[in-house]
Amino acid sequence: MDVIPHIQTIPENQRTILTLGMFDGVHKGHQKIIRYLNEITKDTNAKSCLLTFWPHPRLVLHQDYDLKLLTLHEEKIRLLEKFDLDLLYVQPFDHDFSRMSSIEFVRDFLVGQLNVHTLIIGYDHRFGRNREGSFELLEELSELYQFNVVQLEAIIEGDRPISSTKIRNALLEGNLNYANEALGYQYSITGKVIRGDGIGKTLGFPTINLEVDKLKLLPKDGVYGVQLEIENKNYFGLMNIGFRPTIDNVQHRVEVFILDFEGDLYEEEIRVELITRIRDERKFESKDHLVAQIQKDEAEFRGFIKSL
């Protein structure tokens, strides 16, 4: 997959089968679109192409809205690489680009530069200035500019269509099971290991402290069972997200106690996959009560691991 940092004109004799959008999370709905795109590309000489944007439009147009993302730019590229696309265009999104009308976008970019043969979109896709562009408009433009347009139906998880917004809300509510099912993989958090205060070690549970990008969505505070890879070896662990109310209740932290591991990971970048939510974070009467609960959490999670 060639990653191209902005929309570029392709040769006149080359066509693209294209989808576009933010693809935040690259969830099951997104995956359905990409697989369909790849399937119909097989029988053509066209290039399979995905056009996405960075930063997220809401981060540019609604800076007062505290948007957190399921996938940061690098995470999204890592997930998309698994689908064997030919081309990934990452178009910078700014105020000038946002002012482009939906008709201009189709005429100048999709047709004029990307030479689109077939455009595939999801059930709720909108585009152009103020999200004015609709599937009905695309049907009109496809006749005018001689390309095909396909709108795929939503994938339902539970009783609701899957969307990035619903997955974000599920994580913020602590519903990790729904989020992982809708994503089609385990939600992950990547961060650099930074120095902590060593309190976990004094309690018998040494932890690594992760510094996480401020744009990354952290799920609801609490204790999670996780897995991670260190030097090509798989480990499990307990991750606490929150303020440690029994200890100090001052700074929001992401800490991981790695089971059956000894070593120094300082300044390493670690990706942690969230398997299960164990409990809410809460304040205990004493550190001894906290230790007893962590021991219960560990025993519960080790039992969970055996059932995998």
From TrEMBL:
| InterPro entries, A to Z | FAD_synthase (IPR015864), Riboflavin_kinase (IPR023468), Riboflavin_kinase_bac (IPR002606), Riboflavin_kinase_bac/euk (IPR015865), Riboflavin_kinase_dom_sf (IPR023465), Rossmann-like_a/b/a_fold (IPR014729)
Q: Name one GO biological process term.
A: FAD biosynthetic process
Cite the EC number. 2.7.1.26, 2.7.7.2
Enzyme class, broadest EC rank: transferase
Q: Which GO terms describe its molecular function?
A: ATP binding; FMN adenylyltransferase activity; riboflavin kinase activity
Cross-referenced PANTHER family? RIBOFLAVIN KINASE (PTHR22749:SF6), RIBOFLAVIN KINASE/FMN ADENYLYLTRANSFERASE (PTHR22749)
- Mind telling me what this protein is named? Riboflavin biosynthesis protein
Which species is listed as the source?
Answer: Profundicola chukchiensis
